[in-house]
Amino acid sequence: MASRVYFMDYGKSQNLKRSLDDIFPAMGLDEALKGKRVAVKLHMGEEGNPTHIRPGKVRRLVDRVKEAGGKPFLCDTTTLYPYKRFTAKEYLQTAARNGFSEDTMGCPIMIIDGDGYDSFPIPLEKKTGDVNFDEVPMAKGLLEADFLLVLTHFKGHCVSGFGGSLKNVGMGCVDKTGKSKQHSPSRPLINEDNCIGCSACADACGYGAIEIADGKVHINYDRCMNCTACFFTCKNECIYWKDGYKGEMILYMVHMASAVLKHFENRSAAFNFVEDITPLCDCAASPGSAIFPNIGLFASLDTVAADAAALDMIDETEPLPGTGVPEGPDRLGKFHGVDGRRQIIIAEELGAGASEYELVRLQ
Fold first, then answer.
1. Is 53 exposed, middle or buried (0-12, 13-18, 19+ CB in 10 A)?
2. Residue by residue, what is the 3-state secondary structure of 213-246?
3. What is the pLDDT of residues 154-203, one digit of tens each?
4. Which domains does the chain have, with CATH numbers?
5. Which of 69, 279, 314, 332 is the most exposed place for a label (fewest CB within 10 A)?
């Protein structure tokens, strides 16, 4: 049976409160959240990022959880790369600067993997493709939750094509070791001919894995966590990734998402805010200008269906002028040279949800 996806069309209404008052009872959330500890999973934006979900919208959803009798806490995990969300302390400071604090949200804010390594192993019950792990290091703080409510800014992503709720769960609900595993296909490789020994990559590495010796870069792969900081820092194209890494990263990411969603089976919901649809994700301080107009909110008890519905609507929407977005299907994926819809296919194969859905348009 097709999963229901509830759609708030921004072209017809901007009244989030009224839409949530329709969505919550329709999805059975008023009953499901009553008396429950609710982890509201949110990417609160990197330092300087202007396109994360606005704090006012998040607060409205948090308040609606409370009205349903739930006990919400806002949460996310630390980053693999060393910047302003690398530790719990840094993340909380960045979140506050972006407008997310206990005072502004009206609920606790938790960095659920501590300083990056607090996790609890959960089983990966099903696999597809070449996946060489059997457990997923879920962020330990999620053990305190009875229900997982995933709030996602739906946008493009340079590796996975799009960043939706599957990515929010797969990358954002595991510790640093889980993130490192997902990024292992982009383990940095070296073109020594291009290296000038400038040490920019070594300075950027947060794990002490890079040194300059005899005027050339050397990587200690036993210490490397695949964080990609060296790749984005190098200006001389000395650091590169192997061919085909994007497809492998998608495969690993969706497997980790499926394990977390299995842990919260029948106890999760996804809310995709399809707005500020930039080429890059909220980890970027400069994610680029929007390439589509704002579309709306997609909500479902089925994370896969919520992502599929958002993707379909983007494919049906005229891009903004001068953005160079290719024709569909999978416009965001084609924009980044990757099969973005593979996320949906793999997740469905793993039993994480269904790509077939019924779109319920809110009045």
1. buried
2. ECCEEEECCCCCCCCCHHHHHCCCCCEECCCCHH
3. 999 999 999 999 999 999 999 999 999 999 999 999 999 999 999 999 99
4. 3-181+244-361 (3.40.50.11440), 188-240 (3.30.70.20)
5. 69
> pTM for the complete prediction?
0.97
Q: Cα dihedral sign for 166, 95, 115, 63?
A: negative
Token pair 């493009």 is at which residue?
Answer: 156
Which residue bears the tokens 């049976």?
1
Write the pLDDT tens digit of every residue in 98-119: 999 999 999 999 999 999 999 9
Q: 């008023």: which residue's tokens? A: 30
Q: Which of 32, 98, 19 is nearest to 269 (CA)?
A: 32
Q: Which residues pair with 138 in a beta bridge?
A: 120, 174
Measured CA to CA in angstroms, residue 193 lies from 84, 186, 197 at distances of: 32, 20, 11
Integer Cα distance of 219 and 247 in angstroms:
24
* DSSP secondary structure of 313-358: HHHHSPPPTTS-PPPSSSHHHHHTTS-TTHHHHHHHHTTS--S-EE
Give the tens place of pLDDT for each residue, 229-264.
999 999 999 999 999 999 999 999 999 999 999 999
C-alpha of 281 from chain center: 8
Tens-digit pLDDT profile for residues 283-321:
999 999 999 999 999 999 999 999 999 999 999 999 999
Tell me: pLDDT of 1 over 80.
no
Q: What span, in angstroms and rounded, lies between the C-alpha atoms of 39 and 5?
A: 21
The strand pair at 119-123 and 135-139 is best described as antiparallel
Q: What is the DSSP letter of 28?
A: T
- The single-letter DSSP state of residue 247 is H
Q: How confident is the model at residue 327 (pLDDT cuts 50, 70, 90)?
A: very high
Sign of dihedral through CA atoms 297, 37, 352, 258? positive
DSSP state of 18: H
